[in-house]
Write a structure and sequence with these properties.
By secondary structure, the protein is α+β, with helices and mostly antiparallel strands. It has one domain: OB fold (Dihydrolipoamide Acetyltransferase, E2P), CATH 2.40.50. It is 42% helix and 24% strand. It is globular and about 65 Å long.
Protein backbone atom coordinates (compact mmCIF):
# COMPACT_ATOMS: atom_id res chain seq x y z
CA UNK A 1 0.00 0.00 0.00
CA UNK A 2 2.82 2.38 0.89
CA UNK A 3 4.57 1.57 -2.39
CA UNK A 4 1.35 2.27 -4.33
CA UNK A 5 0.94 5.62 -2.58
CA UNK A 6 4.54 6.53 -3.32
CA UNK A 7 4.20 5.66 -7.01
CA UNK A 8 0.94 7.61 -7.19
CA UNK A 9 2.57 10.63 -5.60
CA UNK A 10 5.43 10.49 -8.10
CA UNK A 11 3.03 10.25 -11.06
CA UNK A 12 0.94 13.14 -9.74
CA UNK A 13 4.04 15.27 -9.30
CA UNK A 14 5.10 14.44 -12.87
CA UNK A 15 1.70 15.48 -14.27
CA UNK A 16 1.71 18.69 -12.28
CA UNK A 17 5.23 19.35 -13.43
CA UNK A 18 4.27 18.89 -17.06
CA UNK A 19 1.47 21.38 -16.63
CA UNK A 20 4.03 24.07 -15.98
CA UNK A 21 6.37 23.09 -18.81
CA UNK A 22 6.81 25.21 -21.93
CA UNK A 23 7.59 23.49 -25.18
CA UNK A 24 10.29 25.57 -26.85
CA UNK A 25 10.44 25.59 -30.64
CA UNK A 26 13.63 24.38 -32.20
CA UNK A 27 15.68 26.71 -34.41
CA UNK A 28 14.41 24.94 -37.54
CA UNK A 29 10.80 25.35 -36.41
CA UNK A 30 11.36 29.05 -35.79
CA UNK A 31 12.85 29.46 -39.27
CA UNK A 32 9.88 27.69 -40.86
CA UNK A 33 7.43 29.84 -38.90
CA UNK A 34 9.27 33.00 -39.94
CA UNK A 35 9.30 31.92 -43.58
CA UNK A 36 5.57 31.23 -43.50
CA UNK A 37 4.71 34.55 -41.84
CA UNK A 38 2.80 37.03 -43.99
CA UNK A 39 5.22 39.49 -45.60
CA UNK A 40 3.39 41.99 -47.85
CA UNK A 41 6.53 43.97 -48.69
CA UNK A 42 8.17 40.85 -50.10
CA UNK A 43 5.02 39.87 -51.99
CA UNK A 44 4.98 43.26 -53.70
CA UNK A 45 8.72 43.30 -54.41
CA UNK A 46 8.48 39.85 -56.00
CA UNK A 47 5.79 40.87 -58.51
CA UNK A 48 6.38 44.57 -59.10
CA UNK A 49 8.92 44.51 -61.94
CA UNK A 50 7.91 41.10 -63.24
CA UNK A 51 4.12 41.57 -63.37
CA UNK A 52 2.90 44.99 -62.24
CA UNK A 53 4.96 47.20 -64.56
CA UNK A 54 4.24 45.05 -67.66
CA UNK A 55 0.54 44.97 -66.72
CA UNK A 56 0.36 48.77 -66.77
CA UNK A 57 2.39 49.00 -69.96
CA UNK A 58 -0.21 46.83 -71.68
CA UNK A 59 -3.43 48.01 -70.06
CA UNK A 60 -2.95 51.76 -69.51
CA UNK A 61 -4.52 54.23 -71.92
CA UNK A 62 -3.68 57.91 -72.14
CA UNK A 63 -5.40 59.97 -69.48
CA UNK A 64 -7.30 61.78 -72.22
CA UNK A 65 -8.65 58.52 -73.66
CA UNK A 66 -9.47 56.97 -70.29
CA UNK A 67 -11.24 60.02 -68.87
CA UNK A 68 -13.16 60.69 -72.10
CA UNK A 69 -14.43 57.11 -72.28
CA UNK A 70 -15.29 57.06 -68.58
CA UNK A 71 -17.34 60.23 -69.04
CA UNK A 72 -19.27 58.88 -72.00
CA UNK A 73 -19.50 55.16 -71.19
CA UNK A 74 -18.29 54.09 -67.76
CA UNK A 75 -18.92 50.40 -68.43
CA UNK A 76 -16.79 50.48 -71.58
CA UNK A 77 -14.00 52.37 -69.80
CA UNK A 78 -14.12 49.92 -66.92
CA UNK A 79 -13.87 46.97 -69.28
CA UNK A 80 -10.96 48.41 -71.22
CA UNK A 81 -8.91 50.21 -68.57
CA UNK A 82 -10.46 49.59 -65.18
CA UNK A 83 -10.79 47.13 -62.35
CA UNK A 84 -12.94 46.84 -59.25
CA UNK A 85 -12.86 44.29 -56.46
CA UNK A 86 -16.15 42.44 -56.04
CA UNK A 87 -15.86 42.73 -52.25
CA UNK A 88 -16.43 46.04 -50.50
CA UNK A 89 -17.27 49.45 -51.88
CA UNK A 90 -14.08 50.30 -53.72
CA UNK A 91 -14.57 52.55 -56.77
CA UNK A 92 -13.48 51.70 -60.27
CA UNK A 93 -9.74 52.20 -60.54
CA UNK A 94 -8.16 52.93 -63.91
CA UNK A 95 -4.74 52.27 -65.43
CA UNK A 96 -3.49 55.33 -67.29
CA UNK A 97 -0.41 57.00 -68.69
CA UNK A 98 0.25 60.70 -68.53
CA UNK A 99 2.62 63.08 -70.28
CA UNK A 100 2.48 66.74 -69.43
CA UNK A 101 3.90 69.73 -67.59
CA UNK A 102 3.92 70.28 -63.85
CA UNK A 103 2.05 73.50 -63.11
CA UNK A 104 1.88 73.28 -59.30
CA UNK A 105 3.74 71.42 -56.57
CA UNK A 106 3.11 70.77 -52.88
CA UNK A 107 6.32 69.40 -51.42
CA UNK A 108 6.13 70.44 -47.75
CA UNK A 109 3.47 67.89 -46.85
CA UNK A 110 4.39 64.26 -46.28
CA UNK A 111 1.64 63.46 -48.77
CA UNK A 112 3.37 65.58 -51.42
CA UNK A 113 2.00 65.91 -54.94
CA UNK A 114 2.31 67.72 -58.24
CA UNK A 115 -0.49 68.91 -60.49
CA UNK A 116 0.04 68.16 -64.16
CA UNK A 117 -1.39 69.73 -67.32
CA UNK A 118 -1.61 67.08 -70.03
CA UNK A 119 -3.44 69.03 -72.75
CA UNK A 120 -1.47 72.30 -72.73
CA UNK A 121 -4.40 74.48 -71.66
CA UNK A 122 -2.64 75.77 -68.56
CA UNK A 123 -4.98 73.92 -66.17
CA UNK A 124 -4.29 70.89 -64.01
CA UNK A 125 -5.77 67.65 -65.32
CA UNK A 126 -4.42 65.22 -62.73
CA UNK A 127 -2.71 65.20 -59.33
CA UNK A 128 0.29 62.88 -59.02
CA UNK A 129 1.43 61.58 -55.63
CA UNK A 130 5.18 61.94 -55.05
CA UNK A 131 5.33 60.69 -51.45
CA UNK A 132 6.63 59.82 -49.04
CA UNK A 133 3.08 59.25 -47.79
CA UNK A 134 0.64 58.01 -50.43
CA UNK A 135 -3.05 57.92 -49.75
CA UNK A 136 -5.27 55.05 -50.84
CA UNK A 137 -4.52 51.75 -52.53
CA UNK A 138 -4.90 52.61 -56.20
CA UNK A 139 -2.15 50.33 -57.48
CA UNK A 140 -3.49 47.25 -55.71
CA UNK A 141 -7.07 48.09 -56.70
CA UNK A 142 -6.21 48.39 -60.39
CA UNK A 143 -4.70 44.91 -60.72
CA UNK A 144 -6.90 42.20 -62.17
CA UNK A 145 -4.49 39.41 -61.23
CA UNK A 146 -4.77 39.88 -57.44
CA UNK A 147 -7.91 39.57 -55.35
CA UNK A 148 -9.11 39.68 -51.77
CA UNK A 149 -9.83 35.94 -51.60
CA UNK A 150 -6.11 35.16 -51.83
CA UNK A 151 -5.60 36.73 -48.40
CA UNK A 152 -6.46 35.54 -44.92
CA UNK A 153 -8.44 38.60 -43.89
CA UNK A 154 -9.09 42.30 -44.43
CA UNK A 155 -6.01 43.27 -42.42
CA UNK A 156 -3.65 41.37 -44.74
CA UNK A 157 -5.43 42.79 -47.78
CA UNK A 158 -4.98 46.33 -46.45
CA UNK A 159 -1.31 45.73 -45.63
CA UNK A 160 -0.76 44.39 -49.14
CA UNK A 161 -2.24 47.58 -50.60
CA UNK A 162 -0.06 49.82 -48.44
CA UNK A 163 3.05 47.86 -49.42
CA UNK A 164 2.64 48.96 -53.03
CA UNK A 165 2.83 52.57 -51.86
CA UNK A 166 5.90 51.83 -49.75
CA UNK A 167 7.61 50.11 -52.67
CA UNK A 168 6.85 52.92 -55.11
CA UNK A 169 8.11 55.54 -52.71
CA UNK A 170 11.39 53.73 -52.00
CA UNK A 171 12.13 52.64 -55.55
CA UNK A 172 10.87 55.69 -57.48
CA UNK A 173 9.66 58.73 -55.62
CA UNK A 174 12.53 59.20 -53.18
CA UNK A 175 14.78 59.80 -56.21
CA UNK A 176 12.77 62.80 -57.43
CA UNK A 177 14.22 66.17 -56.46
CA UNK A 178 11.73 68.46 -54.72
CA UNK A 179 13.38 71.61 -56.08
CA UNK A 180 12.14 73.50 -59.12
CA UNK A 181 9.43 71.05 -60.13
CA UNK A 182 7.05 73.59 -61.65
CA UNK A 183 7.62 73.87 -65.39
CA UNK A 184 9.22 70.46 -65.74
CA UNK A 185 7.75 67.70 -67.88
CA UNK A 186 6.40 64.56 -66.26
CA UNK A 187 5.75 61.17 -67.85
CA UNK A 188 4.27 58.31 -65.87
CA UNK A 189 2.11 55.22 -65.90
CA UNK A 190 -0.02 54.37 -62.92
CA UNK A 191 -3.50 54.20 -61.48
CA UNK A 192 -6.24 56.44 -60.15
CA UNK A 193 -9.67 55.78 -58.67
CA UNK A 194 -12.69 57.30 -60.40
CA UNK A 195 -12.85 60.82 -58.94
CA UNK A 196 -15.91 62.61 -57.67
CA UNK A 197 -17.39 65.08 -60.13
CA UNK A 198 -15.28 68.22 -60.35
CA UNK A 199 -12.33 66.69 -58.49
CA UNK A 200 -8.87 66.02 -59.90
CA UNK A 201 -7.96 62.34 -60.37
CA UNK A 202 -5.53 61.22 -57.63
CA UNK A 203 -2.81 59.34 -59.51
CA UNK A 204 -0.23 56.93 -58.06
CA UNK A 205 2.65 56.12 -60.42
CA UNK A 206 4.28 52.77 -61.06
CA UNK A 207 6.77 54.38 -63.45
CA UNK A 208 7.69 58.07 -63.49
CA UNK A 209 10.17 60.37 -65.20
CA UNK A 210 10.53 64.06 -64.39
CA UNK A 211 12.40 65.96 -67.10
CA UNK A 212 13.86 69.41 -67.61
Amino acid sequence: MLRFKAVSAIMLASVLGLGGCKFVKTEDERKVAAAEAFNPDKLVADIFDAKVVPYFAERAGTLQDVSALAASNLDAAAEKYGHKEKQGNAPWTFAAKINGVIIAAETKSRAAFVDVDVDADGKADIRVSIGPAIRGTAIRDSLKFVNFNEFKNQIEWAQFGKSFNTHVNKSLLEKISREGLVGKTLSATGAYPLPAKGQLPQFVPVTITVGG
